[in-house]
Specification:
The chain has about 240 residues and is α/β, with parallel strands linked by helices. It is built from eight helices and seven strands, in the order αααβαβαββαβααββ.
Length: about 240
């Protein structure tokens, strides 16, 4: 029997390990993990597109709720030289895995602090840094409406004027919860959707549906308006859900 590991096996091993890690943590606490599988590459690309749209200039980027690092990998591959990535993750096991991922992806010419992983809740993340791009992987529909509003306000506070925020929500969760959730859970879920809808009306510039994800996901892009006399109404969305 040939026990040599092929290149294909070596490629699949980290992905399989990531999937198992994700499933184990989801079983421990589905409320904070919020999914049954890591984000797909298609979802990762859409979430991180604002990074590449800035071109070669150095950026400050924040990722919150990174999980096992599926979207973090997309960010690492797209960061321009001299950029800084802060990753905030509340799950201790995920945070440890993300630190290993960051160390395994050095880039010549960048300092050792190019990527920093913070084991924290993003609404309590203490920093004086402002970000050009924020990517959120947090499972908003698992939180209380007031907590979602706190997080979204914190995102807008951390964004530079003109900065972009991307986040996603799974499609079909309203109908699934309507069949299985208690009345209190259904009210909480509806309240979260109302909170997010308010931010979408004020700041959304685009949205897309990623069908090639498990489950399918809807990606939203919000932008903090450029300061004049304060935060103003964002420009109208440039495209329909597509």
């Amino acid at each position: 029997m040939d026990d040599r590991t092929t290149s294909h096996d070596r490629l699949l091993a980290p992905r399989n390990a990531e999937g198992w890690t994700f499933l184990i943590e989801a079983a421990r606490d589905l409320r904070t993990v919020g999914a049954i599988a890591p984000s797909s590459r298609a979802l990762g690309r859409l979430l991180t597109d604002p990074v590449t749209e800035h071109g070669p200039q150095p950026l400050n980027v924040l990722e919150a709720g990174a999980g096992t690092g599926a979207v973090t990998r997309a960010l690492l591959s797209r960061l321009s030289p001299g950029s800084r990535l802060d990753v905030v993750e509340a799950n201790a096991r995920f945070a440890a895995r993300l630190r290993h991922l960051a160390h395994a992806h050095p880039r010549p010419g960048d300092g050792s602090d190019r990527v920093r992983v913070h084991h924290a809740f993003v609404e309590r993340f203490d920093t004086d840094r402002r970000y050009d791009v924020i990517v959120s992987g947090l499972p908003f529909t698992n939180f209380a409406p007031a907590q979602v509003a706190t997080i979204m306000d914190r995102y807008l506070e951390l964004l530079r004027p003109g900065g972009a925020l991307t986040y996603f929500a799974y499609r079909g969760t309203r109908y699934a919860r309507a069949m299985t959730a208690t009345r209190a859970e259904a009210r909480r879920h509806s309240g979260v959707e109302e909170v997010l809808a308010g931010y979408q009306r004020r700041y959304a510039t685009d949205c897309w549906t990623v069908w090639g994800n498990l489950p399918p996901a809807k990606v939203w892009r919000l932008r903090r308006p450029v300061h004049r006399t304060g935060l103003a109404t964002a420009p109208a969305m440039t495209g329909a859900d597509r």
